[in-house]
Amino acid sequence: MPYRTRLVERIVPYRWVLEPALGVVLFLSWVIAGLPFEFQSALALTFYCAAVAVSRVLPPVSLGLLWLAVLGEATESVSMPMPFRVLSAVAVLIAVFGIAAHSGPVVRWLDFASAILVAPMLAYLFTVRGELKFPLIGPVIGGYYTSQGVGLLLMSLLLAVTFVAGWLLGFLVARQRASSVGAGAEEGAVPGAETGNHSVLVWLASSGGTPVPESDPNRTGLVRRLTRRQLTFDIAGAVLFAVLCLPFDSAGLFGISGDGGARSAIVVVIGFTVAVAVRRISPAVALAIAWLTAVLQMTTGHSIQFSDVAILVVLYATAAYGDRIVRWSGLISAGLGAVVAALYLSLTAALNQSYLDLLSGAISRLALEFVFLVVVSATVLGLSWVLGLLMRTWRNARMSRRAQVVAEFDRARAVEDVVVEQERTRIARDMHDVVAHSLAVVIAQADGARYARHADPDAVDVALKTIASTARSALGDVRVLLAELRHAQPEGPQPSLDDLDRTVEQVRAAGLDVTVERIGGYGMLGSAQQIAAYRIVQEALTNALRHGDTSMPATVVLAEVAQRDGGPGITITVRNTMKTVQTDTPATGALPRVGHGLPGMRERATLAGGSLAAGPAGGEFLVNAFLPAGETA
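The structure corresponding to this sequence follows.
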């Protein structure tokens, strides 16, 4: 793989040599084959070769040379042999492909129209002026037999399909190159290098140093990237398909229909095998190869064979793996192929049975047979395309479901992250409440013991006992909170309003007289509301102890409310006297500093479904909260 990649990248700057080399090869083939030299025919073939040679660098000139060659061949005085006609058809196919691959939009669509208009002219040279003759059956109209007109129509249709297939392939090559340039590839770089695709098909789409228009950069690539397993499976399946063709197509392969029939049958099997092999890596190329092989099969006189199953496989692939243009090209090919196949089969049957006579009653039988074959062929070909479309829809739906599952998983992860973050924030608030309250009590007790040490030595023991009890309780709470950080669920009991008395006793022991009044009950509160109520009272008393006047008592009122805006619940009211501001203290207009306690209390009340208001009120600091009733967790 690395060696092939380096080789493709190395020959990209010489991509411009391909078209001139093909022109020279066509001219040498004419010379080596020993075809008769006539000035007009030689001039026409020279124009053909020149059109091929300049199709990449000068597409408009190439299109003009192509028309000069066709018109020169059509007006020649002598009839050229079949090899010359084949060389001219090959030159038209290559030129149409090159012009479509390297021209602008206007010239490209003129090339498409030329591919359709040139087909009947070459068909006329093949059949009427050439060596490909049809039986002279039916009435004479305008000096030509009816069978000649039907043969001309069939040959025109086959050539038009061939040239349009070449144009479509060139158009897709142009799309591949525009996609590579639009994706940021450097001029002259290998298209598809950014996705790891390196192949001859991608090399055909390289610019080779010529200017490349960057119109419509969001285009689909010519070659799909397959895994090694998928590529191996496709190649093995194509080999198995070729092996299965041996017993079913033995009449043509082993020469029952003659040496020429055997050679053409082998070429047909090889063409269909290649189409099956590349059906997933490049559905467009597979469709073009299938059309060219089918045209070869019809022009060499072969009837339906087992290898024609490849057409169904290719149509399935265009619908299942192709982009929008390739997908609709497959549908058009199914309809057009049904008409061509019906016309070919009915015409060959009529020629074999010699009843192509408009004056006889057999023409109605021929028409009915043609209609029946069109319906059957359209059904079979269309069904394979529809199956591919259904597979594509199923695959897209599965990918959509998979993307939806991934999105739901990501959403769940995001929600989980939000919940975890909220839980960590709650734990941080609890940690703040526990540590702030405990340290406030410890500091107050330590200061009180230090001042009362000489007057009342026994107070030191009481203070130390209170300090130890408060620190021990705080340590237990901290352990519970740290356990919550390590696990999804807490490992210890959460505080509630039943634990409020212990907190009040700690504050009283620290030197702040606290009066608690309970009006009604609080059994209607859920666990979340009880925790929030406990933390709000704890934080309010801690702020009163740290920032308020400890010589004046604080009051806590817990009152049951039967009905409020939020329904039944409980109101919490905490009052404490504020410290008197000294006259020599600069007036800043700021409220007494209370740290992060107030925002934490408001957030707790909000998360519990309630509300909280706090602030000075007539020399006092008032905290008023409402918590609604909730289910007990």
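Residues 124 and 155 are 8 Å apart (CA to CA).
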